[in-house]
Every structure is written in structure tokens, then in C-alpha cells.
Amino acid sequence: MDTVIGDLTAGGRRTRAAVWTGTGVDLREVAVPDLDIGELLVRVDLATVCGSDLHTVSGRRPAPCPSVLGHEAVGRVVGSGQRVVWGVTVACGRCDRCESGRTAKCRNVRKVGHERYDGSWPLSGGYAQHIVLPAGSCVVPVPEIVPDTVAAPAACATATVMAALEQAGDLDGRRVLICGAGMLGVTATAACAVAGARVWVTDPDPVRMEIAERFGGRPDDGAAVDIAIDFSGSSVAVARCLDRLDVGGVLVLAGSVTPGPAVPLDPEAVVRRWLTVTGVHNYEPRHLEQAVRFLAETVGIYPWDEVVGEPVGLDGLAEALVPPAAGLLRAAVAP
Questions:
Q1: Domain Alcohol dehydrogenase-like N-terminal spans what residues (predicted)?
Q2: Distance from C-alpha of 88 to C-alpha of 92, rounded to nearest angstrom
Q3: What confidence score (pLDDT) does residue 63 get?
Q4: Could you give the CA distance from residue 119 to residue 241 in angstroms, rounded to a whole number?
Q5: Which of the chain's ends, N or C, has fewer CB atoms near its CB within 10 Å?
Q6: Are 136 and 90 in contact (CB under 8 A)?
Q7: What's the Cα-to-Cα distance from 252 to each of 140, 167, 202, 224, 265, rounded to whole Å?
Q8: How far apart are CA 320 and CA 317, in angstroms?
């Protein structure tokens, strides 16, 4: 008879995973592989559903299939019990991009929740009872004061915001426009407000605008700004951001992750107004560390847990892979 070690079965250890097949979710009992040197096995306590997973299942975003999706999660390391979140990207550490400090764009990058289930890393996503973290993964401890529903988005939404704000520069006393009041936009709103900025937010959804106001934002008034950060991915919104920048202004693009219409750019305006336009995709390990620290510092200030839905089990994942209900920014899964 098999014996039980923690929540894994020894003598042929098994766990459960929700495998995206391209047409639906298939719950499978999965073998837990023997760990190589440097690898960690983590029990997933809670995962949140990022918009990119919704794009995958709706066919708007190409992704490896079959796969275990889910890249925003929090859990405990099997063996030590350490509560952690982990980065989306796993870099090789050897290529020219890694050596230049851009590990997020590693030439050999592997990504949590983006790998084939029938490949070399089957337990790669958060929609499973356990995940295997390869050697070289960014793993950050999470204080117990941060609830699971608050901690899980750190691994994508919050860390990406930290990377975007790094590109924006000093925020204290600055006029900031946030385009898009999804999870990233609302998180950026709170982070900018904490840093001393005056923050305006624009989003066509009135419910999301109400949420943004609870996190330190105010409705856009159309005035000039020092910094604009776009999380919407809308070419129309990006063009409007450019028009709104005052002299010396900075535009950070973080939402344009799928092809869209080109945005006209007047080189003379960039030169004469001394503008900066930059982009952010994924993030570096330091940004995940900053994300956890920021959430720990603001968990009592902003209602983070109110924008994440009541968790469902793995058997309810299919119902969670849809846009969240009004008033929520994330669905949640408790494997």
C-alpha cells in the first residue's frame, strides 16, 4: 500500500493538475517527477487568473498546448514549508541578454504556465496542486500578513507594475495618467499614489473606474501629465497618452502585448518636447521582490482582497477562465 508524505503519495508520487487541451480543461492525476539539483517542489495554495490566460483560452493568444496554465500563484515549498511566490520567467543566465541584465528576455527563456504538458516540464503552471520550479527560478518569501488572494498576483501583475514604474522614473509630486483599470492599472494607481504622485485614471468601464478611485486614483481631467503608463493595449489610448505628455514627459507601454494598429509618432514633437517612450515586457527578479514588499506595506491600506473572487477548486477552473464578474479584477483557484 502507498504511504502518504504530506499531501503526496509516496512510492509513485501523484498530484492533480488541470491541463488545458485547446478545447477545455482536463483534470489529470499527474506523476511527480524526481527533482534535479536546484529544483523545488511547491504545493500551490492559491492561483489567480491573469488576463493572458483568458486570451489563451479564447484563442486570442497563441500558447503551447496541452499545458498547465497559471502563472500568478502562491504556495509552500514541500519539505521546508516556506511560503513563497515565484517569477514568471526562468532564464538561462548565460546568454548575452542575461549577461546584460535583461533576464526577462533571455534567449532560452522558459515561462511558468506557458510550457507544454507533454514536454520536459509538465508541472509548470499554477493550476495544479503542485508545481516544479526549475533551478534558477526567482523565488521570493511571502510574509504571513499578506493573504493568499493578495500575494498571488505579485507574480505577474504587481511585479510587472514595479518594472513599469522603474521605467517611469521619480514619481513624487508628478502628474501621472494610468490608462486601463484592470489589475495592473489599479495596482499602478496605488503604487503611484503611495510614491507621492497625483494619479488620474481612464477606463471605459465605470465599475473599474470606481475600483481605481478606491486605490488612490481620480477620473481623468484631460490635462497635461508628466508620466503616462498604458496597460490597456489600445492603440487609440497610446496615441492619446502621447498627446497628453508635457515637456520632458515619459510614456511607458506595458499593455501592448498583441499586434494592433500602428500609432502615429511625430518625431519633431518628440524632439521639441523632449519626450521618452519606452516599453516593458515581463520583469526582473528585483521587481518581484519589490512587489511582495509593496503588498506587505499596503495590505492594510488598500482593499486588495476585495478585487479577487472567491476561490474555486480545480474542478471549477473552467468556470474561472472567463472575464471576472463586475467589481472583481481576478478570479481565483485553490487547487
A1: 38-143
A2: 14
A3: 86
A4: 42
A5: N
A6: yes
A7: 26, 7, 15, 16, 15
A8: 5
Which residues are CB-neighbours of 62 under 8 A, at least 6 positions away?
none
Residues 17 and 135: their CA atoms lie apart, in Å, by: 21
Q: How far is CA 190 from CA 64, 185, 202, in A?
A: 34, 9, 14
Q: Are strands 245-253 and 276-279 parallel, antiparallel or unpaired?
A: parallel
Predicted TM-score (pTM) of the model is 0.94
Fold of the domain spanning 157-279: Rossmann fold (3.40.50)
Q: What are the per-10-residue average pLDDT scores of the chain (335 residues)?
A: 42 88 94 95 98 89 92 97 98 97 97 95 97 97 98 98 98 98 98 98 98 98 98 96 97 94 95 98 97 98 97 95 95 96
Instruction: Indicate the angle between helix axes 183-194 and 285-298, nearest 10 degrees.
Output: 70
Residue with cell 511625430: 266
Tell me the DSSP string of 152-220. GGGGTHHHHHHHHHHHH---TT-EEEEE--SHHHHHHHHHHHHTT-EEEEE-S-HHHHHHHHHTT-EE-
What is the spatial distance between Cα 310 and Cα 149, in angstroms, rounded to a whole number? 9
Specify the domain boundaries for CATH 3.40.50.720 within the chain: 157-279
Q: Where in the chain is the domain with CATH 3.90.180.10?
A: 4-155+303-333
**H or E element: which one contains 230?**
strand 225-230
Q: Side chain identity at 206, as an amino acid letter? A: P
